[in-house]
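WARN retry 2 of 3 for item q-0093 after timeout on previous attempt; input resubmitted unchanged.
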Amino acid sequence: MQPGYPAQRFTESQRVPISYWDWGNATAPTLALVHGGRDHARSWDRIAEAFRTDFHVVAPDLRGHGDSGWTPGGNYGLPDNALDIVRVIEAAGSPAFVVGHSYGGSVCLVAAGTYPEHFAALAVIEGTHSLNPRDEEAVGPRWLRRWGDRLRAFEGRQPRVYANLDEAVERMREANPRLPADFVPHLAEHASRRVEGGLAWKYDLWVNGRTSMEVRRRELPLFWEAVECPVLLMYARQSHLVGRQQTEAGKYFKVAKTVFVDDAGHWLHHDQPAVVVDTLRTFLSTVRG
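OK item q-0093 returned
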């Protein structure tokens, strides 16, 4: 396997095909890299290259993202995604060292609290915020009606079509000007698929509907307290989610370290890749002993 060309594999979770990319070195400990919302597995390529010599690196596409399947009923909640991550770890080699970004980090925290035996260590980058409805809104028929109306609104929506890759690249740059210019074409290429008239994102709009039975916000610390492995929490000083992240989350874990990174936005692993690699390497080497 040549550098930069991982093998694509598939596993199945809840009858949904889950795509994951495999950088080889299968006899080494598994390192799973889990992307966030509206992203894809190949966003991790540069981080994967830094660790492929010492780990069996794999990176899954979350359901409804990248090359993974879309759910017919629109189930895209934390519990559904958490089971998918456990399935990928089982397929790649358990227990695994896991790194999750943003929503992917939130998913991994739920997975690690529910199935702690599959996690040797967990690093969460900008992933302690919550997209879940407020607790007072997530009960009774009012909540079900709100969720149902939101989900049904996607029935008539169509994805935006870009004439060519250049247009998709430009849209990605507009959405996140901090992305490294030389890496954006790679991100856009793996984030898009050919459709009639051009390209559309490999992203199911129904992901935004989540699920009718989501984990409530007040329940999240219960999952965090159940995590048994060491945890690294990383936050960006210039993130657009400053104020929404629970930066004091470290107090819920048995063993945790919190790191803040300057001159970086929410996509910390793109803004400060060298810092992220060095921080992860130190954390992982300490855990491995």
